[in-house]
Amino acid sequence: MSQSLAVRAAANSLANASGTAVTRVREVLDTLATRDINGDVLTAIRYFPARNAQFAAFPAWVHPALVAAYNAKGIRQSYTHQAAATEAVHAGKNIVVVTPTASGKTLCYNLPVLHEILERPDTRALYLFPTKALAQDQLAELYDLNQRLDNCFGVFTYDGDTPADARRAIREKGHVVLTNPDMLHTGILPHHTRWTRLFENLRYIVIDELHTYRGVFGSHLCNVLRRLRRIANFYGREPQFICCSATIANPGELAARLLEKDVDVLSENGAPAGEKTFVFYNPPVVNRALGIRRSYVNETSRVAQEFLKRDLQTLVFANSRLQTEILLTYLQQANPQAPGKQETIRGYRGGYLPNERREIERGLRDGRIRGVVSTSALELGIDVGSLDTVVMAGYPGSIAATWQRAGRAGRRSGSSCAVMVASSSPLDQFMVRNPDYFFGNTPEHAFIQPDNLEILVNHLKCAAFELPIAPGEHFGEVDIPDLCARLAEAGYLHLAGDHYHWTHEAYPADTISLRAISSDNFIIIDITGAPNVIGEVDFPSALIFLHEKAIYIHGGQQYHVEHLDFKERKAYVKQVDVDYYTDAVRYTQVRILEASATSSSSSGLANLHSHGDVLVRSQVIGFKKIKFFTNENIGDGKLELPENEMHTTSYWITLERPLLESLPYSVSERQSGMFGMLHALASVATLLLMCDGRDLGTAIGERPPQPDLETSVIGAENSAPLAPAADDFTPTRLSDVSRSNLKEFFEPNLYLFDAYPGGIGFSEPLFRSHDLLIHKTRELIAACACEQGCPSCVGPAGDLVPRTKEAALAILDRLCG
Amino acid sequence: MASSPDKFSRLAALRPARPAPSRPAALRAPNEEDSLARLIGAGVAKNHFGEHLALRNWFSSPEFCEPSGVALELLSRGRDESLTRRTRAALEDTARWLFLDTETTGLAGGTGTYPFLVGIAWWDGGGLQVEQFFMRDFSEEHSVLHELAARLAERPVLVTFNGKSFDWPLLENRFTMTRAISAPRLAAHLDLLHPARALWKLRLGSVRLVELERHVLDAPRLGWHREDDVASSLIPQYYFDYLRGGSSAPLAGVVRHNQMDLRGLAALFGKINTLLASQDEDRDGVDSLDLFGLSRFLERRGDSDRAQAACTQALDFGLPAEFRQRARRELALLAKRRGDHHAAAALWGELVSDPQDGVLACEQLAIHYERRAKDSVRAEEFARLGLAKLQRTRANSRDPYAAARIARLSEKFLFRINRLAARKRTAKAGIRRLSL
How far apart are the CA of B97 and the nearest CA of chain A, in angstroms? Predict the structure, then answer.
């Protein structure tokens, strides 16, 4: 009842506003409300009124030509945060500006940088964007300003696409060089002598979308910045940093960690915003006993269709490529292409070629395209104009990302609506049932671990290549002389005088990718007719999406993978029209290398928890065929693909024999209970860490008989770098993989590991909050309304043996004491 | 971060990329420290930046070669830039020339690649004076660069083999890295790699200096031989081994290798000079393929008249079958550019049955008959023949790019055929009207 009140309240507030879009959004909300018989579908409808702009005049010292240029663009005064940022930069401070999407962040750095260039034409600035597309976007903005300033400065993008003959001019004449961390790492720093002009005059470094530099990417960037500062110092400069970030919990901390300098945080926002309605949608329950809800993918498509039907321009976010393509298929079927017209519903994701993406962005801006289904690729600040509505298929994994995606609707004025359709994963269910947690909490923390030895050593090599390492040099919080001595022993460095010089023929930056384990790509070739390259995917994804017999979906068209040429990194596909898709089955092994700390629980039956270094091996071992719409499993196959291996850090719980003996369940029930418990444990861990679900991998394995001895360990759960989407384990896998190990008293380790090579610092905090983790997990399972277990607590009931939920609870009871 | 030794040993980043032994098998004994200097006959040179090893050798071969004006013009002229008077004057004064070749710690370039041996040479007393600077450790780099800068100030015309894209940018990097010695300004830079490639790539396939010595420069009469020469690919490793206390013997080989490369470079200049300056009548002993290469080089540098002469001569001397048609095509294109359409048409006529250039020949002939000879019947014949040839190739081709090109060309032919056919119809209609 209270829910329908909320609907009415929201509807009333909308009714007060006028405008056709508002009416249409209201119609949709009404339609959705009629389906909400029990009041548990629309769990939150929050209305955010429009915000007025708060203006401040441009600071008096700004160069008059620049003020005139902005005036000519129609910008007569700045928002308060823009003025504050400009003043802080002028005062020589390193700053990070934290405001939502579309609040005019670019002015915060363009204004002070261009002012300085106008005052002192030697000034140089380097802009870093996480993607090439964002740099292209900013280039257009700077071109426009430059034209109004009689082209008095040089502005260029410098990335992999820059033609070789243009590069020399950019190095000499670029006052503002727009690039990305990868290009800085492989293309600029190792050749800094060609960039003397830039480095000798480098005043500013601008880092946009700072919040994207978290985890492994952030740890790499921090090291790249260490190298950048080293080179700048070599040319006698100490550049100032201007950063922009979306809202996260710790922007100041992240910036300080990345830049290793004091940073001022500017978070007061003076930009206007249109009114917005935010809706949480929990798909209706169809089987209460099994806790089965309607498929959230189908429900997302239904909600999006309601908006599209009313001609509201809609952006649908999915959490994986596969879901993107499935949703695209559904929505294109519902909105058939008019004869002779272009498709109005399009897909957008990493595997599409750049030209196709640019065309879609244009189509969105000019309104020709009415709906787009996208992965997180459209989350960042690419300019696609203002959309009416955003529908998210599943919780994006973090509060920050959810706001970022919701921000794509209604960028500056007018009314907009965002709907989050929850999946049945525990995290989604937690969020959708506790909306106050979402709306009342700060977004996540961004963690980096720049002193991760694997990452640091790689960058130390690059640093030595760029400039011999001097005695007493600092590079992170590690013992540099010791590391250099070890690198010298391995033949990479040589001590001459008191400097370490690079002594290897190889070029170190080439083999180090900032983003992934490997920089390998597979290209996809359609051989239905004349061979035609339709896209590319990175190495880990290729194993999942392009294995032989997989159905690869691209642009809504299904392709059957005929042959995967591993050596040549090519996949040959043929167009097909079938009613199923495929889902890869992965298998993960964990081996403990070294336990950093082990502690026995203070309460309950004896059990151990530890953290330390592990080796994780994962492999795609087969696939399932799943029917569209009904999601029935209609067959499977085995695959032989190479293993992926990484060193990382992990937290684990060991369940000992006395505890297991005290459980009144059969072996299979007990084991199923462990998997169920781990399922819930991982969800709670992501909440506690305020990290993304994809940052943690899980596995179960037998405890090594003696500490530090190698044992084979089995587990079958989602291993994150391979699986963007949460992937539930199935009985097939349980029986295939685990039956052989169903010993009477198999003493298992339950692993939660960092899903990045080298680890990014989650294991230790998890180890410290062990008790809280166990208690919260128990609460989550105990509070779930299902009978036998459901995807929202211990996993889907259909995949589990009976009494799984009971067994999981019993284990947790004993752990809690 | 735990820092136990195990942790380090597990680090993939620390593992050597190649299982090559990082520590050389045999270490130099202390009394061997100066053995390299003795082995190569070098002395320790000192300047205010420090010291390094330096040695000088005079060689009677190759002999001094007076550069011809024509050759210099061709070698130093880019595609369309002409020489400034000052560059010209610098080039003509061979006393200001400096041949240069470096041995480096790798081929990757960038700021972490060091030229540990810098070899320079100049004409002197009818032969070649070779001077080499060797850094016994990285700390000696500054004094080597200082010495090089002094030599280049005296002789600012650089002659190299691939120096434009490798040696010189690398040295410029090194000068920048010192922050103390500015990179010398060059008056001119002749890189012989590009002319050598144009002239001999057809015949030799590879134009490495060693190959050129063997097949172009008449190796037995050069005055040196490369029988026990070191392999270029091993040079960085020899130096790294030496740095870590390994044997200096292989480096003596590297120093000799560098000397031979410099002498080869000077000899190569002589050869190129002769060929570029030669008139038709002095080319009797020249290989026909080299003449064809010469014609392509001349044509690229904008000297079409001499290009045509050299090409005709190459055909007269007798080219291997696979190059004969290519030479005819070049001649036809040259004739067309000259405006000699009749000569061009005759040459295209010989090419119609060629499997490679047949289609191009048909197209050119169709154009010729339509536009110049105004013979639309023959024009249509050739257009149809070209189209038939294309369709035959399409049937045999699997390459998607080729398929696209064929489709594009086919369309052009069809367009031409339709136009010619339409013209024929209107002409016929006109005749019919007249007869009525």
Answer: 26
Q: What is the residue range of A317's domain?
A: 284-440
- List the beta bridge partners of residue A409: A387
Of A407, A396, A418, A403, which Cα lies nearest the Cα of A46? Answer: A418
Which CATH number is B61's domain given? 3.30.420.10
CATH code where residue A430 lies: 3.40.50.300
Query: Residues 6 or more apart from A76 whose CB is under 8 A from it?
Result: A70
- Whether B14 maps to a domain, the answer reads no
Q: B80 and B140 share a domain? A: yes
- B2–A596: do the CB atoms touch at under 8 Å? yes
pTM (predicted TM-score): 0.78
Q: Does B270 touch chain A if contact means CB atoms closer than 8 Å? A: no
Indicate if B319 and B210 belong to the same structural domain. no
| Same-domain status, B253 and B162 | yes
Higher pLDDT, A509 or A461: A461
Q: Is the same domain home to A573 and A588?
A: no
Residue B262 lies in a domain: yes
| Average pLDDT, integer, range A688-710 | 67
Residues 6+ apart with CB under 8 A from A8: none
Q: Determine the structural domain holding residue B405 and report its residue range.
A: 352-436
* Whether residue B5 has pLDDT greater than 60: no
Tell me which of B6, B52, B138 to substitute to probe the interface with A (most A C-beta atoms closer than 10 Å).
B138
pLDDT at A544 over 70: yes
| CA dihedral sign of residues A109, A114, A116, A122 | positive
Q: What is the DSSP string of B43-100?
A: EEEEETTEEEEEEEEEES-SPP-PPPHHHHHHHH--SSPPPPHHHHHHHH-GGGEEEE
Averaged pLDDT of chain A: 82
How much of chain A exceeds pLDDT 70, in percent? 86
Which residues in A lie closer than 8 A to residue B20 (C-beta atoms)? Answer: 491
Mutate to test the interface with A, among B3, B6, B9, B11 (most CBs of A within 10 A): B11
Asked if B178 has any chain A CB less than 8 Å from its own CB, the reply is no
- Residue B234 belongs to a domain: yes
Q: Which of A799, A794, A769, A766 minimizes the C-alpha distance to A780?
A: A794
Q: How many CB pairs under 8 A join A and B?
A: 112
CB atoms closer than 10 angstroms to residue A367? 10
Tell me the C-alpha distance between A457 and A459, whole Å. Answer: 5
Whether residues B101 and B242 fall in one domain: yes
The neighbouring-strand residues paired with A561 are A573
* A476, closest residue in chain B (CA to CA): B1
Q: What per-residue string of b and e applies to B218-247 under the rule 16 or more CB within 10 Å gives b?
A: eeeebebebeeebeeeebbbbbbbbbbebb
CA distances from A36 to A7, A291, A686 (A): 10, 17, 30
Q: Are residues A290 and A215 in the same domain?
A: no
Q: Which of B112, B237, B400 sits opposite A465 (nearest CB)?
A: B112
Q: Are residues A419 and A375 in the same domain?
A: yes
pLDDT of residue A193: 94
Are B12 and A194 inside 8 Å of each other by CB? no
Is the separation of the CB atoms in B198 and B305 below 8 Å?
Answer: no
Residues B259 and B119: beta-carbon distance below 8 Å: yes
Chain B residues with CB-CB distance to A532 below 8 A? 400
Q: A230 and A153, same structural domain?
A: yes
State whether A205 and A319 are in the same domain: no
Which chain A residue shows the shortest CA-CA distance from B110? Answer: A191
* Residues A569 and A596 reside in one and the same domain: no
Residues A690 and A649 placed together within one structural domain of the fold: yes
Asked if residue B224 and residue B106 are part of one domain, the reply reads yes
ipTM of this model? Answer: 0.81
Contact A613 B7 (CB under 8 A): yes
- B chain contacts of residue A511, beta-carbon cutoff 8 Å: 17
Q: Is B231 an interface residue toward A (CB < 8 Å)? A: no
